[in-house]
Structures are given as structure tokens and as C-alpha cells.
Design a protein that fits this description.
Shape: globular
Organism: Pontivivens marinum
Low-confidence stretches: none
InterPro entries: NAD(P)-bd_dom_sf, Sc_DH/Rdtase_CS, SDR_fam
Number of helices: 7
CATH topology: Rossmann fold
Pfam families: adh_short_C2
Distance between the termini: 36 Å
Largest sheet: 7 strands, parallel
Number of domains: 1
Order of helices and strands: EHEEHEHEHEHHHE
Structural class: alpha/beta
Mean pLDDT: 95
Protein name: Gluconate 5-dehydrogenase
Keywords: Oxidoreductase
């Protein structure tokens, strides 16, 4: 029997779907026949209003997740897939981290992914099928300068993903994370704005280049589809072999 890589007919919620990796994954889902709800502060320009819509949402407040989840289910029904792609990186040195910056980073990068998933798993349980894909990072397992708050949140995402899998996989809901290397997004603007630094990170990979948006969509669609039925609790590096060296 051939594996089923299709996402046609599924309903997906993508946080941070108006830019970066979230946008790339959302576009791939719509191209594959899924209906997509993008949750972001600003409108996702690619949404057509029929098979894809944007909902304005402040994801930095975990207490609003129940209401956001309710609104996200209105356009196309209860979601089958959740992509937690929204995030922030304050890039502060350890000595300069403030309590407010630390809390904002953890709220958006770690707390909201859990509480939004918690609010959406009920519908997935009812159908006996669901997919949660979190966005981890190179910093889930290693340290970078100026990344103490971000790294703490992404280390948490790795463990959160495993804990989600333990909690919900028996209900047919898999939970996995993609751990991207360096991709050209708003979060990595300082890297790609420095040609020498960008080249240094490219040289760290086994492939010899940094990532492109096309590199993230295949792994994402695999984890969103029934082809990954027996994959859960895993953190998949999509880094060109950066962590292999």
C-alpha cells in the first residue's frame, strides 16, 4: 500500500501564517488541498477568503487561547492540523535580559503553543485524528550568543512536543516539531543582513548552504499527512546537516 501524503480536505490552523516559515507551510497546505486559517497580527496576503482566511490574533496572551480556538473553528470547522509557527527572538545578551522580555518570549514561543493545542485537541479527539507541528530550533539543543530567552523557549518546545505526544497520541493525535536551521525570515534578518555571518552558517551545514522556504514544506507536509501515522514525539532537524557536524 502506498503511503498517503495527501492533506486534501483537512482543516489547518497556522500561527504566524502571514510571513516566514508559517507562511511557507500554510501555502503548501493550501496547494495540497487543505483549508487554512492563518492566525497573525497582520493579514496574510495570500489568503483568498474561500479556502484560506486570516484571523487577527494576539498570541502573546495564553489566556486568550480558548477564544482564539473558537474563532479559528468558525470558517471551516474544527481543525485537524495545528502549526505553531509564530515566534519572537529578542536577541538580548544574558546580562541585558529583562523580566518583561523574558516573559513575552516564553508566552509567545512556549505557553501559547501549548494552550492553543489544548484548546483544539477536543475536536481532534472526536475524529480520532489530528496533527500538531511545533517549530523548534537549532537552539533547542545548542546555545547561540544573544539567545538565552529564545533558547530557553525552544528547548522547552522540544520537551513540550514529547509531552504532547505522550498525552494525546493514543487519541490519534501526533505531535512533532520541525527544527529549522538558518532560513531567511524576519527572525533571522540580522544573520542574512551580514554576508560574512550568513556564509559562516552555510559553511557549518553538510550541504553547504542555508535553507530556502522550499526546504521546509516537504517535511511539514509529511508530518501533516497520514504518511506519518507512526511518527510522534520527534524533533526533526531541517538544517542541511548543521547539527550533524
Amino acid at each position: 500500500m502506498s503511503p498517503d501524503f495527501s492533506v486534501a480536505g483537512k482543516v489547518a490552523v497556522v500561527t504566524g501564517g502571514s510571513s516566514g516559515l508559517g507562511e511557507a507551510i500554510a501555502l503548501a497546505l493550501t496547494a495540497g488541498g487543505a483549508k487554512v486559517v492563518s492566525l497573525s497580527r497582520r493579514p496574510a496576503e495570500w489568503c483568498d477568503g474561500e479556502t484560506s482566511v486570516t484571523l487577527s490574533a494576539d498570541l502573546s496572551d495564553p489566556d486568550t487561547m480558548q477564544q482564539i480556538a473558537k474563532s479559528a473553528a468558525e470558517p471551516f470547522g474544527a481543525p485537524d492540523i495545528l502549526i505553531n509557527a509564530a515566534g519572537i527572538n529578542t536577541r538580548q545578551a544574558a546580562d541585558d535580559v529583562t523580566a518583561s522580555g523574558w516573559q513575552m518570549t516564553l508566552d509567545l514561543n512556549l505557553s501559547s503553543p501549548f494552550f492553543l493545542a489544548q484548546a483544539l485537541v477536543g475536536g481532534m479527539k472526536d475524529r480520532g485524528w489530528g496533527r500538531i507541528i511545533n517549530i523548534a530550533s537549532l537552539q533547542s539543543s545548542r546555545a547561540f550568543a544573544g539567545g538565552i530567552a529564545y533558547g530557553a523557549s525552544k528547548g522547552g518546545i522540544a520537551q513540550l512536543t514529547r509531552a504532547m505526544a505522550e498525552a494525546w497520541s493514543r487519541d490519534g493525535i501526533t505531535a512533532n516539531a520541525l527544527a529549522p536551521g538558518f532560513f531567511p525570515t524576519a527572525l533571522t534578518g540580522p544573520v542574512f543582513g551580514d554576508a560574512e555571518l550568513s556564509a559562516r552558517h552555510a559553511a557549518q551545514t553538510c550541504i553547504g548552504r542555508n535553507g530556502t522556504m522550499e526546504d521546509i514544506t516537504g517535511p511539514a507536509l509529511f508530518l501533516c499527512s497520514s504518511a506519518s501515522n507512526y511518527v510522534t514525539g520527534q524533533i526533526l532537524p531541517v538544517d542541511g546537516g548543521y547539527t550533524a557536524k
